[in-house]
Design brief:
The protein has a three-stranded mixed beta sheet with strand order 2-4-3, covered by helices on one side. Strands 1-5 form a two-stranded antiparallel sheet. It is mostly helical and about 325 residues long. It is globular, with a radius of gyration of 20 Å. A hairpin with a 2-residue loop joins strand 3 and strand 4. The chain contains 15 helices and five strands. The relative contact order is 0.14. Helix 10 runs antiparallel to helix 11. The model has no long low-confidence stretch (mean pLDDT about 95).
């Protein structure tokens, strides 16, 4: 870690004559410094507070929304994530992912993502750079596959390759604080693809509750009992959900999904557009900066937009969001 920090601060940012670009890179340098410190403190008492500094606290209004969602989706409580429908395995997901990636590649040759089946990642999918990693332990409902690929391929990979087309690598790896809006966009893409479910929304809300409990000092067992006894989660789901939050000694990241989704819905209701978010991996705070850089010719328009926005149903759902949607409303459309 110390070696990487020396490399990080050996970069001379004063070479940037443009003050906007200087600020963007300075913010990223500070964020990477904090991330490196977080890595060094895994399993130690400071880890939780460093995570809080990196991802922010769970604000009371955000927690209120999460608790309200769990109360209003109580009919879905206790359901197994695989209950009530045929399931598919990692090989089915891989085939569907290859089809979607090929569709994007036909639209833009630079979209040259790769797929890896892995034994060393948790069940599900994740993106790392240009790679889509699929766990061999993956089992999911068939109707969730398109939505999940819209999340991972249609947002995370798409913004990586759109960011690559900008010429400045930071737009593909992510500006400081980009993760919240990136995950908000990705969850919203699940809705646009027509695969957003009560079970999925409950997980996103429960991550906020679990994160809040962890930051407040609750033990893993205490938080587990609250999710099971007060919010109706089955033991396996509650355990896996909290395992994400308590890793490393307590990582405050999981609140960003719902926070980012709420920021995005508010942005759309206020008349905001989405194109600057497709230019690369940016935060909500950089929206105006992206518009300015684009107007000055320093950024290109996105070469790709999510395929889920090209269907009639996807466009209809986006228009509904412009008139104002809550996360619960997303289940009705």
């Amino acid at each position: 870690v110390e070696q990487e920090k020396r490399r990080l601060f050996s970069i001379a940012l004063d070479r940037f004559e443009d003050p906007v670009l200087h600020q963007i890179y300075r913010e990223k340098q500070q964020e990477l410094d904090l991330q490196l410190t977080l890595i060094a403190e895994r399993g130690k008492a400071r880890f939780v507070e460093l995570g809080r500094a990196l991802y922010g606290p769970v604000e009371p209004p955000l927690l209120d929304v999460a608790v309200s969602i769990l109360a209003d989706t109580v009919d879905a409580a206790g359901m197994s994530p695989l209950e009530g429908e045929d399931t598919v395995d990692c090989f089915y997901v891989e085939r569907k992912a290859r089809t979607m990636i090929a569709d994007y590649h036909r639209l833009h040759e630079g979209f040259d993502a790769t797929i890896e089946l892995r034994d060393d990642v948790p069940a599900g999918l994740m993106v790392s750079g240009r790679r889509l990693l699929i766990s061999r332990r993956t089992l999911m409902k068939r109707h969730r596959v398109e939505a999940l690929l819209s999340h991972e391929v249609g947002v995370h990979l798409l913004t990586y390759f759109n960011g690559s087309a900008q010429g400045l690598r930071v737009f593909r790896t992510g500006l400081a604080g980009y993760e919240g809006m990136q995950e908000g966009l990705a969850v919203f893409a699940e809705y646009l693809a027509g695969g957003f479910t009560p079970e999925r929304l409950r997980l996103v809300a429960a991550r906020v509750v679990g994160c809040s409990l962890m930051l407040a000092g609750a033990s893993f067992v205490e938080a587990f009992r609250i999710l099971v006894n007060e919010h109706g989660f089955d033991a396996q789901t509650a355990f896996g959900l909290l395992l994400r939050g308590y890793r490393g000694g307590g990582l405050a990241k999981d609140a960003i999904y719902l926070r980012g989704l709420l920021e995005l819905l508010g942005h759309l209701k206020a008349g905001g557009v989405l194109d600057p978010f497709w230019m690369g991996k940016i935060s909500a705070s950089h929206f105006a900066v992206m518009q300015e850089l684009g107007a000055r010719g320093l950024l290109k328009a996105p070469v790709l937009r999510p395929i889920c926005l090209e269907s009639d149903r996807g466009r209809e759902r986006l228009e509904k969001a412009r008139f104002g949607l809550s996360p619960l409303d997303m289940l009705q459309h």
